[in-house]
Specification:
By secondary structure, the protein is mainly alpha-helical. It has 2 domains: 58 residues, Orthogonal Bundle (Arc Repressor Mutant, subunit A); 154 residues, Tetracycline Repressor, domain 2. The chain contains 10 helices and no strands. The protein is flat. The chain starts with 24 loop residues before the first helix and ends with a helix.
Length: 239
């Protein structure tokens, strides 16, 4: 898609497409998301998207100005899916852990789109709601504003980074993933203690642990650090 501005009032298509469906922003995003997961980022072209929708490609400009505008909407949709079933309980550490795991699972469910959207700031409704919700949890827990933003920043970037990392790994061909798993058993587990004492001592744990995501452990470490910082702040306030 190229840069092109269509007035908001003219964006809604009132007649069905060739396939008998009425275009909407939600339908276009869902179709684009499916194409990316099936065919990769190169599938996000106005011609292929129009063909999948049974619509004239030019009609897509009523909803999105260009491909990047659509990509931001896709990234925001993934955020929204993670947030949709999340219900804060009032226990800040539990709530952030639950949301973080939902964000990570959402990325793995759509690995190709997650990698593309992991470094983008959408400024759209779902992202704004998520930022507001996380900051609300942190401020409600007692973090001062500056500390709340610091923890928020680390928390979100960690979730996005692991989502992209693990999504990229899961998108590898099966043979490549199996070959990488074999390296831990066939190479690292066989290194002699005389030359590599630390690897040899921990080899069985490396074989067990390195094949799975480190995100849950990393998330717990971050939340532990945030909880310790909160205790410091409370102790300083009592002095």
């Amino acid at each position: 898609m190229s840069e092109r501005v269509v007035p908001p009032a003219a964006r809604r298509r009132r007649r069905p497409t060739k396939q008998g469906v009425v275009l909407s922003e939600e339908l276009i995003v869902a179709t684009a998301l499916r194409l990316i997961e099936e065919h990769g980022a190169d599938a996000l072209s106005v011609r292929r998207l129009g063909r999948a929708l049974g619509a004239d490609p030019s009609s897509l400009y009523r909803y999105f100005r260009h491909t990047d505008d659509l990509m931001l909407a896709i990234a925001d949709e993934l955020i929204g899916r993670s947030l949709r079933a999340w219900r804060p309980t009032g226990e800040w550490r539990h709530d952030l852990r639950e949301l973080g795991l939902r964000m990570h699972a959402g990325a793995l469910a759509h690995p190709r789109a997650a990698v593309l959207g992991s470094y983008r700031v959408t400024g759209r409704v779902h992202e704004i709601r998520t930022v507001e919700s996380i900051l609300g949890v942190l401020r409600g827990a007692g973090f001062p504003d500056e500390e709340a933003v610091r923890v928020y920043h680390a928390y979100v970037d960690q979730a996005l980074a692991f989502g992209a990392l693990d999504s990229a790994s899961s998108a590898l061909p099966r043979a490549a993933r199996e070959a990488e798993d074999t390296v831990w058993r066939a190479t690292y587990a066989r290194l002699p203690a005389g030359t590599h004492p630390h690897i040899a001592a921990t080899a069985r744990h490396l074989v067990t642990d390195m094949g799975r995501s480190a995100y849950p452990a990393a998330l717990d470490l971050l939340l532990d650090a945030a909880a310790a910082r909160l205790e410091e702040i409370r102790a300083a306030g009592d002095d």
